[in-house]
Structure formats: structure tokens, C-alpha cells
Amino acid sequence: MVLFAAAAGGALVVQARESSTQEARQLSKGVAQSFARAPGTLDAMKSGDPTELLQPRAEDARKNTGVDYVVTFDPQGFRWTHPDPKLIGKHIYAVREGGAADRPFTKTFEGSLGLAVDTTVPVYDTNGITIVGFVSVGVTVASVDDVVMDQLPQLLGFAGGALAVAAGGTALVSWRLRRQTRGLDPSEMTRMYEHHDAVLHAVREGVLIVGSDGRLLLANDEARRLLNLPADAEERRFTDLGLEAGTAELLGAGRPATDVVHLAGDRLLAVNVRPVDPDDHTAGSVATLRDTTELRALAGRAEVARERLGLLYEAGVRIGTTLDVVRTAQELAEVAVPRFADTATVDLLDPILRGAVSAGPGPQMRRVAVHGVDGARSLYPVGELIRFVPSSPAAVGAERGRAVLDVDLTAPGGWMSAQDPERARRVLDLGFHSLITVPLQARGVVLGMASFWRSTGAPFGREDLAFAEELAARAAVAVDNARRFTREHTLAESLQRSLLPGSLPDHAAVEVAHRYLPALEGVGGDWFDVIPLPGARVALVVGDVVGHGLHAAATMGRLRTAVHNFSALDLPPDELLGHLDELVARMDSDENGERDHESVAGATCLYAVYDPASGMCCLSRSGHPEPALVHPDGTVEYLRVPGSPPLGLGGAEPFETAEVSLSEGSRLVFYTDGLVEDRERGIDTGLEALRHALAGARRSPEETCQDVLDALLPARSSDDIALLVARTRLLDPSRVAEWEVPGDPAVVAGIRADVTGRLRVWGLEELAFTTELIVSELVTNAIRYGIGPIRLRVLRDGDSLICEVADGSSTSPHLRRAAITDEGGRGLFLVARFARRWGTRYMARGKVIWTEQSTRSPEAEPEEVSADALLEQWEDAAW
């Protein structure tokens, strides 16, 4: 033992020294690398006086980290810093022996401060190639030895203590052996050892030696304990030992038995009986007894554990099947009842139900799930906001973040009486006697509480807490996933709805109704729009961006804005889709390097322009389903609009248009594919169902939208749905006036007179002056610079008066300020001054210059500024 203690002490000393040395190497390496990478180190080494900047920092680092020195030096080996200022500027000899200069290395060498564990780290310039200097950090061996010497008394004390314990143990064992043997000589001790220890006490089973006459000859201690035998049992018959008749018969008869399970009192025994001499049954027998009571209990507990493992597996399968917070809570309650509890309730914090992050557990929670025995809902109904008292298990568990067990709900003066005496009485009337309340925690945040109630069987015990916590933990992850989905879904839906038009403008050309329904899995990129165009026309748009979530919603907003901008240019449908296709291609190209972004290519769009003056509708589509047209008599047809690839995939292929003449009262139906196609229904079936839903006359757009959704809306939509229904109107011919204009400037005066006469018929005499000026300028410019034929059209649309001058030229006028010497260039300025807005629209051949004036009240400008005063702005005297 002395040698063992000495060897152990020496080994501990060596180990302590090695550990201290290793710690010194790690310390020096860590400090050296930290100092080398510290902000300012590189700049200081590159400065004019590195010592002035580095010496204070090196000394601070040495004192704060406990190393013996922090030395910096240049690539030639001349020190910039040193604990001994006298050595600054001195050369370091053999500093790189055993180490490479271009990477950190650690070694033990004899320095100016003695033998030390030293780590040298190079400091590179910003290019990562040039070495600017080195940082050397060391811990002297004397410091390491000091640590070992500080630990040496403890090591020696431990070794001495171990030696003392070993010696004391040896002495105690010797004393106990002498006492137990009662001073018997070795031969007697050997006999007793061979008979009792080897045969009886060494085995962990009850051993009985039975004579041929049924007498008990020998019984070990285990047999006495199992059968509760009296002290003088030897040499007595089993029938005289007070055993049950069946037990006495089984053991005393001497008949062979193998693992016979026998109930003896409150113990379940496995009995084996074997004859001493198989050939001589009169020689007696040996019986062994094995207590299987605990094994049976263990088997019962193992069965319970197996059932609970199965329940946990079932929980993993059944909880979280949907990304709905309330449904996930209900699934937890359904899994727990009845295999773990008679009733289960789940309460969640209100922010969790909205998808928000809770600031922390609070006293108020909302009940979202109750499942269990009849009458359990009388605890608290679903949907009620509960304010728990501080002593309740829910409040205590939420505060501590651990499960709380209440084994006796019937105890007087409990928390239930403080919570609600009337409900407490109903709880006890239902027979509930024990409760486990577990916090639902995910990512360190308490989401709510799950409570498990028992009204039958044994009360909950401590062993049930771990299972309840495991069950709640699995459910909490599913609840948190549902919460996060709810939050993302709410954000995406809010973004989607904010980007969609809140209300569509009233327009004389069409009466519209719309619907937008997001998918259950998340909002997508469907959108619709109604955009007023010059000339009383209107643009109808429906589009669909691939994908779901925030990216699809944001992309939809960008495309909708782009369509508005392109519509402001009054482009034909095919040209507008061409520009939109180029935009999508650029968007995909810009985001191609960002792998987190989804591709936009695959977005679809249907764009139509309807002119109520002529009843013509021009349509173009890019990868979008064909629109439906409901004629005034109720018949339905799908318009054959030439198809093109989705946006971003068109390449060099041009977009095509289709023109159709619409009767007044026709209904144009634009929709996205989510309405007619889903997982359980093909697109052909959906289109046919849509045809049947649209058939029928004399229905308003609102009624049409509702009928379509009632007929086609799936129970669980996997894609969002956009629906736009527009019923066409025609302008009254009496509100449209047209003139063919010869190419002679002399006819301008007559045209002005005709327009004034038409305004007088419409009751717009107050607009005669400005309208004559506008018509005169536009017609004169068309005659002077345009190409025939030239047409003038004046329309009255609601509160607008529209003037349009068309000619065969494709050149467009531009508003500019005329120079002093210019003879012309001022007419378009006057047009822009007096019109509410104006612009140019190109046709297949030629263009249309249009203006729009308000008819609500006389324009303020002609009253405040006379025409002469306005024209004087361009006279030479004014300049």
C-alpha cells in the first residue's frame, strides 16, 4: 500500500506538472494570437515608433492575462516591447529554431527571463503575405513549477489519506473476521466456509435440504427469509413449520419441479426441486427458491414504460399534423386521454394564438383545448380567458419553467378555492383527485400550459412528471412551429392584401366585382386590377406569381406597380406584356446570385383593354388561363386568346393579341388557376365546372363572384384564388362626336364652331373657350405635321370631357419651353395648361393625341389668367 500510494502520488505530481505545462502552452498561444489579431496591433507595428504604441498594451496584456512576458519584435528579430525596458531594441537570437517563421509555433527555450514556454505568432500585413512583425508570449517554467508546488500539499495529502484509509480498512476487516469466527481454529473455519459460504451464503437463492422423510435438514438465510421460517426449523417436518398446505406439499413431497411459480404469502416464488441422487429417491432432495415478486413489479413497470414509449411515438405522429395553433393544442389533449390522464386541458398565451412572440409567461392564458370525461368542460370552457392565482400550479409552473404535481386536489384550503370556489366544487364533484401542470416551452419561451387531470385510478406520482414533461415538450415544438407559421402567414397575407387594391375605382366602361382568397398553406402572388385609361377606356388585369409566402407577395407588388407604370404609357396589351416579360427576366437575373430567393420566372398575366365607345376589347396573355365571356343571353364561351409562355420565359417570341366585340351587358371573367385546378381536380374538369357556374343571364358581377366561389371553391385550397368579373357598358352615341378633318388649315375655324355647338348641346358652354383652344392647337398640329387621315373625336364620360385627334403619323409631340426667337412651340404648353391631363396613344397605324378636362366646375385658370396675359409671357418685351 505504501508503494502504491507513493507511485500514485508521483503520478499525480507528474500529471499536475504536465497539465500545468499544457495549460501554460495554451495560455501563451491564446494570448499571443489574441494580441496579434487585436485591433491596432498591425497599425502600431507599421507606425514610426512601434515601441511607444505597443509597450503599454503589451504590459497591460501581461498583467491581465497572467503570462510572464509579451514581447513584440520586427522580422529581423529586434524587440519592440519587453517587460524589462532595457532589453527593448535588443536582438533575439535563435528565435526561430524549431519553428517556421510563417505560422504560429510553441516551444520551450531559455530566454532573458529564464526557461519559458513560449508561443510566437507572426503578424501579416493586410495583403496576408507580408510579415510585419511577431508577437511572442511566454510563461516561465518557474511559474509552472509554482502551480505544481501549490498543488503538491494537496497531492501528498491525498496519497497519505488513501494510505490511511487502506490501513484502517485492513485493520477493520481483520478485527471483524476474528470476531465472526469466535476464535475457531483453521480446520473448523475451513469446514464452515465450505459448507455455509460456498453452499448456502454464496448463492442468492433460498436453499433447502430436505430429507427423505420430509424433514427440513438445512435452510440458508435467504430461504428462511422467503418462507419466514422459525429459528428451530431444522429437523422438523414442513407441515409443522406453519407453512400453507400447498407450500408444505410442494417442498416436502420431494417430487421434482422446475420453475414452478408459487404464491407464498405476499411473495411470488419460483420453485425448483431436485433429488440429491436421481437413482435413489430415498436420499432426499434439494429445493431452491427464487423471489420473483420484484421481477413481476419490474415487468409491470416495463410494460408501463413500453406503453408510454408507444404513446410518445403516437404523439410524435398525431401532434402537429397541421400548422394551426389551436388544432395542435387539441391534438395534444386527444393523445393524452385516456391513456395517461382522464382529462387534458391546454391554455395558451394570447400572443401565441396571433403568431406573435410572448414577452414572457403571464397570469392570463386562454383555454384552447379541453378533452376528457363528461363534464370536463365545466372546468373552464374553450375560448375563455383565465387569470390564474399566484398559488395555482399553472402560475407556479409558468414562473419556474417546470412541471408541477398536485397529488391531492381534495385538500382543504387549496389553490382551487382561491381560484374559483364554485368551479372547485364542480371539479371535486367530477371526482378529480390529482393534477400535473406542465409548461409548454420551445426555444426557451413559455407558450402556455398543459394540465393533465385524473379522476379514476391511482393519483399521479413523481414518476409521471418526466413523462408529462416529455409529452409537453414534443407538443410545444409543434405549437411553436404552428405559431411561427401563423406569424409568417399573417405577415404575408397582410403584405398581400396591402399590395392588392383595397377597392376598385368606379368606371363608366365596366361594373366590376372581385374576390381574393389566400391558400391555407400561405398566401401566393395572385393579383388583379382595374386601371382607367384615357379615352374612357379601362384596362383589366389578372396575374399570378409562382410560389407562396413573402417573396411571392412582394414580387406581386412589384409586377402590379410595373403594370400601372406601363399602363400610364398607354401601351397596347402585347407591348405591355413584352415590357413586363423583360422586367421579370431582369429581376431573375438580379436575384440569380442569391440562393435564398425564389425565381420569378413562371409568373403569368392576362391584360385586356376595353373601349366603351366602340365596344372592342383587346386582350393578350402570358401563360395565363383563357378568360371566360358570358354573353347577355347567359351563354358562356372561353375567348381564344393566343397563348404565350409565362413571363420571364418568352425569349424572343412576340406576344399576340386578340380583339373581340362585346355587347353591352356582357360579363368578362378573369381568374387564376387556383380556382379551376387543385390536387383532386384537373383543369379540364374545373373549366367545365366554371362554365356551368357562369351560365345564366341577368346576374350582377357580385352575384356572379359568389356563385362561382360556391360552386368551385375547394374545402382546402392549396393555391390562392383571384377572381375578377366585369360587366361591360357602352357609351351613349349621343355622348360621342366625330369629325373627319381635311388637310387644310382653313377648316380649323369650322371645326371649332362644330365642337362649340356640340358642347352647347351637352350643356358645357363654360368649357367652350378652353375646348376651342385645345381643339384648335391639336387639329392645327395634326394638319401641319401629321399624315392623313385626320379624325377628331370628342367624348363626354361622366365628369370628363375628352378630345382626341388621330392621324397617320407616328411622331409624338413633346412639351418644351419655346425660345424667344421661335415662331412656334407654344401651343402644346397651352394645351397642357388648360387640360387636366393629356398624352399620346399609338395605334397600329398612327397615333392619337388626347386631352381630358373636368366638367364638374369651370376651370380656375381661365378666370384667373387671361389668354392674352398668358400669351404675353412669350412676347419679346416679356423677356
TrEMBL record:
Record SMART domains: GAF, PP2C_SIG
InterPro entries found in the cross-reference section: Bact_Sigma-Reg (IPR052016), GAF (IPR003018), GAF-like_dom_sf (IPR029016), HATPase_C_sf (IPR036890), HATPase_dom (IPR003594), PAS-like_dom_sf (IPR035965), PPM-type-like_dom_sf (IPR036457), PPM-type_phosphatase-like_dom (IPR001932)
Subcellular location: Cell membrane
Alphabetical list of Pfam families matching this protein: GAF, HATPase_c_2, sCache_3_2, SpoIIE
Top-level lineage group: Bacteria
Keywords attached to this entry: ATP-binding, Cell membrane, Hydrolase, Kinase, Membrane, Nucleotide-binding, Phosphoprotein, Transferase, Transmembrane, Transmembrane helix, Two-component regulatory system
Membrane topology, from the record: Multi-pass membrane protein
Limits of the GAF domain: 347-489
Positions of the PPM-type phosphatase domain: 507-728
Protein's name in the database: SpoIIE family protein phosphatase
Species of the source: Streptomyces violaceochromogenes
Lineage: Bacteria, Bacillati, Actinomycetota, Actinomycetes, Kitasatosporales
